[in-house]
Design brief:
heterodimer, A: 195 residues, alpha/beta, Rossmann fold, eight-stranded mixed sheet, 5 helices, 8 strands, 32% helix, globular, B: 159 residues, alpha+beta, Beta-Lactamase, five-stranded antiparallel sheet, 21% strand, Gliding_Motility_GTPase (chain A), Cell polarity determinant GTPase MglA (chain A), Small_GTPase_ARF/SAR (chain A)
Chain lengths: 195, 159
């Protein structure tokens, strides 16, 4: 849920990156962090295990500039992808304004993608959200790997509603900002409708 | 989708006043107020050198995790939490079911004093947030974003 502060003339929105374990959610945030002007970003926080797997969440506050005299701030979160961290995934979806589903393009991860997408739908519903109504985009990550299957095939399996989708290679930044811009736009458009 | 929290000038002044008073009355270093989704609403005291955005997000994460634990134990929630450090301690309290009041204090204060003052400030804050919720629910209050255009949004992303 967005937070509009008339006193400080700020609007804050929460975007959550969701997807199966090791699909590259944290890498998306790390790339955004590395390539953003220091004035526009806060500290990136990663609550990770010793093996760098996200334990609770990653968090990156990002300023995008002003709109109608209001500073816009986007709070980017990732969830832990591993199946057994479902309790913390649910908590992080609280108050979400927009969701990025990061899919792993590798053939052997298709089942994990489908399972995670279903888990997203169920966990959103538990918080009172409907995936078909929440601002939502899909990213097909790891396009550079040899076992990556075609985008057409990924589209058919993971994006039947035809939401905006982006091929990506998160470590090199391919598709990372396109994905972020797209979800930020959808969130702001939703805010406009709510007004 | 649900509309989010909206903070108006008048209520913000009341909230900031309550936080300032709590900082003084509890001999606290910092007081801040966040919503349960991790957005910073107000801060008071020596907050200049603190990364309040990160504090807000981590506090919300912590409160959410404790809420999850409470449910597992059959409790509705744990409305108050206390974390004791070597030099500084942290007290968190859920106010009006929606926001979290955080007090950071050192040896100049005590847990007893903080708890006492937080209780009073919490009651005052709960009233303000109740009024705020009613104001937000009143028909005719329009979001400043009702009039934004696609161009305004595109402009944000122009390099």
């Amino acid at each position: 849920m967005s937070f509009i502060n008339y006193s400080s003339r700020e609007i804050n929105c929460k975007i959550v990156y969701y997807g199966p374990g090791l699909c590259g959610k944290t890498t998306n945030l790390q790339y955004v962090y590395a390539k953003t002007n220091p004035d526009a970003k806060g500290k990136m926080i990663s609550l990770a295990t010793e093996t760098e797997r996200t334990l609770f969440f990653d968090f990156l506050p990002l300023s995008l500039g002003e709109i109608r005299g209001f500073k816009t701030r986007f709070h980017l979160y990732t969830v832990p992808g591993q199946v057994f961290y479902d309790a913390s995934r649910k908590l992080i979806l609280k108050g979400v304004d927009g969701v990025v589903f990061v899919a792993d393009s590798q053939m052997e991860r298709m089942e994990a993608n489908l399972e995670s997408l279903e888990n997203l739908r169920v966990n959103l519903a538990e918080q009172g959200y409907d995936l078909d109504k929440v601002p939502y985009v899909v990213q097909y990550n790891k396009r550079d790997l040899p076992s990556a299957i075609g985008v057409d095939e990924l589209h058919r399996a993971l994006n039947p509603k035809n939401v905006p989708e982006f091929p990506a290679v998160a470590p090199t930044g391919v598709g990372v900002f396109d994905t972020l811009k797209s979800i930020a736009k959808l969130v702001l458009t939703e805010l406009k409708k709510a007004g | 989708m649900n509309s989010g929290l909206v903070m108006y000038e008048e209520e913000f002044r009341l909230i900031a006043g309550i936080c300032d008073r709590l900082t003084r009355d509890a001999n606290a270093k910092v007081v801040f107020l966040i919503d349960k989704n991790g957005q910073l609403i107000a801060s008071s005291g020596q907050a200049q050198n603190l990364d309040t955005t990160s504090l807000a997000s981590l506090t919300a994460g912590n409160v959410a995790a404790m809420g999850g634990l409470a449910k597992l134990l059959g409790e509705k929630e744990f409305p108050n939490q206390f974390h004791e450090g070597e030099r500084e301690s942290l007290h968190m309290s859920i106010v009006g079911g929606r926001v979290v009041l955080v007090v950071i204090f050192d040896a100049k204060s005590s847990l007893g004093l903080v708890r006492l003052r937080v209780k009073k400030a919490g009651e005052e804050l709960a009233k303000v947030f109740e009024a705020l919720a009613q104001k937000q629910a009143t028909p005719g209050t329009q979001s400043p974003f009702a009039e934004i255009t696609d161009d305004d949004i595109d402009h944000l992303f122009s390099e």
